[in-house]
Design a protein that fits this description.
The protein has helices at residues 51-67, 111-121, 156-166, 204-213, 222-225, 246-254; strands spanning 24-27, 71-74, 91-94, 97-100, 126-128, 139-142, 145-150, 170-174, 187-189, 195-197, 218-219, 233-234, 238-242, 258-262, 279-280. By secondary structure, the chain is an alpha/beta fold. The protein has one domain (24-284): L-arginine/glycine Amidinotransferase, Chain A (5-stranded Propeller). Helix 4 (204-213) links the parallel strand 10 (195-197) and strand 11. The chain starts with 23 loop residues before the first strand and ends in a 9-residue tail after the last strand. The strands form five sheets. Strands 2-1-15 form a three-stranded mixed sheet, covered by helices on one side. A three-stranded mixed sheet has the order 3-4-5, sandwiched between helices. It is 21% helix and 19% strand.
Length: 289
């Protein structure tokens, strides 16, 4: 894992001009979504889930992506796997190679095989993690760098394994607040140079790393973090995020991004939002530039 150094700044001239890039996403319908166990601080099995509303909110998210011009493939849902809707956790795909997940909790372990099967159908080779690693939940690609969360799920040993597999810098960030159990709940990539984040979710050392790498990062406040505002998806211009994250949306708009607001409040009962529902297929290195 590399020592942090500041990334090259994005070119600017006057007002920021953001450029969208067409993406390839994988999602999974919440056909069997429910909160029947508690493996993160958001989950309460005594809280009822409106299954029809969850499915409609998810369908609205998929339509949003397609309206923005992105490709969306659907991984079939499987009975008995209520968290499978959180498709981002199944793998990390970079340069056409997949790092297949090994889940921390037995309740989700069987999801990994279904992700591997879909990736095989797409012609993407899969390296199955030898250590606990939860895909894009804890692994955030920012340009040529992978930011890697640890503290609750993905292990530091997985970070080292991934660095060898991808031959890319993998930078460890320690999470300290159980409400932000995955890196994608408290940090999102806006483009190849910029992130948005909530500093309070990180250790002091982790905060120093993020500030060194991304001195121009967007800092969200606790209110927006607690509505999973940072669990968003950006194509470089459009940023899809929860409708309740009003402060963060205003900050992004001021930076030249276009917030696209959606309601995933039913899925938030499972501790997931926009990004949790969205895996990205990155085929070639050129597509990252």
């Amino acid at each position: 894992m590399s020592a942090p150094t500041a990334l090259p700044a994005a070119p600017t001239s006057g007002a920021a001009v953001r450029t969208a890039r067409t993406r390839h996403y994988v999602v999974c319908a919440p056909t069997y979504f429910d909160v029947v166990y508690a493996i993160n601080a958001w989950m309460d099995p005594s809280t009822p889930v409106d299954a029809d509303r969850a499915l409609q909110q998810w369908a609205d998210l998929v339509e949003t992506y397609r309206a923005l011009g992105h490709r969306v493939d659907v991984l079939p849902a499987v009975p008995g796997l209520p968290d499978m809707v959180f498709a981002a956790n199944g793998a990390l795909v970079v340069d056409g190679v997949a790092y297949g997940s090994r889940f921390a909790h037995p309740q989700r372990a069987a999801e990994a095989g279904h992700h591997r099967a879909l990736l095989a159908e797409l012609g993407i080779p899969v390296h199955v993690a030898e250590h606990v690693a939860e895909g894009e939940g804890d692994l955030v690609v920012v340009g040529a760098v992978v930011l890697a969360g640890t503290g609750f799920r993905t292990t530091r040993a997985a970070h080292a394994e991934l660095a060898v597999l991808l031959d890319r810098p993998v930078v460890t960030l320690e999470l300290v607040d159980p409400r932000f159990y995955h890196l994608d709940t408290c940090l999102m990539a806006l483009d190849d140079h910029t992130v948005a984040w909530f500093p309070g979710a990180f250790s002091a050392a982790g905060q120093d790393v993020v500030r060194t790498l991304f001195p121009d990062a967007v800092e969200a406040d606790l209110a927006d973090a607690l509505v999973l505002g940072l669990n968003g998806v950006s194509d470089g211009r459009h940023v899809v995020l929860p409708v309740a994250a009003t402060g963060l949306a205003a900050q992004l708009a001021a930076r030249g991004y276009e917030p696209v607001l959606v309601d995933l409040s039913e899925l938030a009962k499972g501790g997931g939002g926009v990004k949790c529902c969205t895996a990205e297929i990155r085929i070639t290195e050129e597509e990252q530039s």
